[in-house]
Amino acid sequence: xxxxxxxxxxxxxxxxxxxxxxxxxxxxxxxxxxxxxxxxxxxxxxxxxxxxxxxxxxxxxxxxxxxxxxxxxxxxxxxxxxxxxxxxxxxxxxxxxxxxxxxxxxxxxxxxxxxxxxxxxxxxxxxxxxxxxxxxxxxxxxxxxxxxxxxxxxxxxxxxxxxxxxxxxxxxxxxxxxxxxxxxxxxxxxxxxxxxxxxxxxxxxxxxxxxxxxxxxxxxxxxxxxxxxxxxxxxxxxxxxxxxxxxxxxxxxxxxxxxxxxxxxxxxxxxxxxxxxxxxxxxxxxxxxxxxxxxxxxxxxxxxxxxxxxxxxxxxxxxxxx
Length: 322
Fold this sequence. Notes:
CATH topology of the largest domain: Alpha-Beta Plaits
């Protein structure tokens, strides 16, 4: 039986977080030369396919790349990188077979604070793994280039630094503070909890726009793991509109808490039906924090379970969401 393939979203100027692990989580780099050789293949892909590299961290058994594709060709670029490096390692170590664990994982990312936080997450990988105490001490990531005057022709820094400050020197200082302030946090991978459907990282508007790109031909392909799940996902905005229509109120008034009961219903159903995170839901409701979203959802969930009347009411709304 053919293994299901993950959904790939490819469009011009898309930005991705790409992750690839060693087969059975084994090492993929065995010497300093191997790390350098891998970056050489990344540089080749950059030249051949016109991709931009915004940040990276090469770990012992996996790597992280933040890549932009002006020409909508992520698959071609990644095939070049992984296949070239696998051939190099197999020849050098006189081995055969797969080096990487299946296909790489790619998450499309919005060009805003989500991207800045993702870059911080990538650069803190060596610290979380206990390999160094400070990210600047790790030689096989792009962090040194971001916080010093060290030159790295492989990198394009302007996009991420530009999210922080228009002045490059000031942006570098602030980026250091921003990144190193997260060292020791209990949940360093918090940003990844905001990934929607396993493939999109961004706010509600970006998610809606990206979902619009993958309808039709993408979702009709066989062997795509997210296909069935994405067909059942609904945007938070659509759910609010349905509730507003059913209760004969304005959607904007639900957002602004004029109708508290309808707002609770909306938060509950968005959480249940859309796959959105608390952060993404909070963007739909003016002034609500992520903690308030979480609390509202949990309380209303208990109300639904404890009231047959409310359960039927919610079931009726769910039928209207198509």
